[in-house]
Amino acid sequence: MDQPRVLVITGSPSDLPKVEPCEKMLKEMGIAGKVVVASAHRSPSKVREAVKKAEEDGVEVIIAAAGMSAHLPGVVASQTNLPVIGVPLDGGLLGGVDALFSIVQMPSGIPVAAVAVNGATNAAILAARILALKYHEVAERLDKYRQSLESGS
Fold it and tell me: How many CB atoms lie within 10 A of CB 115?
């Protein structure tokens, strides 16, 4: 069976340390994650190319992390029918609340799921929950992970 795939896209190289927890959790869940840096504002053609390639490569969920105006998750969602999870990142004067509002206030018809500011780990877990509907091994890893949270280990 093919390995489940997720694209993680972020708008700036400076955001990469903030998405590392996402990469780590995807790996823990047995999900192949690829990270691409592409800005909705500075490199929109690269965003389009990354989304198109993700669809061609069998990616099933996209995680888009962005700070400040945080248009990246919405721009990605406007170009695909794949589920898009937005991760608002801190970095502006409002500590990420501006990014959170940008992500959750998408127009009707272009939904983006949103996690907490700097919630990269939860974005990976949400992606795993979506993929667990299809991939039994991901569901099993999620169960074990949740049990570890209960036991505190």
Answer: 22
Dihedral angle over CA of 8, 6, 84, 24, nearest 10: -60
Mapping DSSP to helix (H, G, I), strand (E, B) and coil, where does residue 2 land?
A: coil
Structure confidence by residue, pLDDT tens digits, 45-100 = 999 999 999 999 999 999 999 998 899 999 999 999 999 999 999 987 789 999 99
Q: Evaluate whether residue 151 is within a structural domain.
A: no
Per-residue pLDDT tens digits for 9-53: 999 999 999 999 999 999 999 999 999 999 999 999 999 999 999
Q: What is the CATH number of the domain that holds 121?
A: 3.40.50.1970
Q: Measure CA 114 to chain center.
A: 9
- Whether 1 shows a pLDDT value over 60: the answer reads no
The pTM (predicted TM-score) of the whole model is 0.96
In a domain, 152, yes or no: no
Q: What is the DSSP string of 65-119?
A: EEETT--HHHHHHTT-SS-EEEEEE--STTTTHHHHHHHH-PPTT---EE--TT-
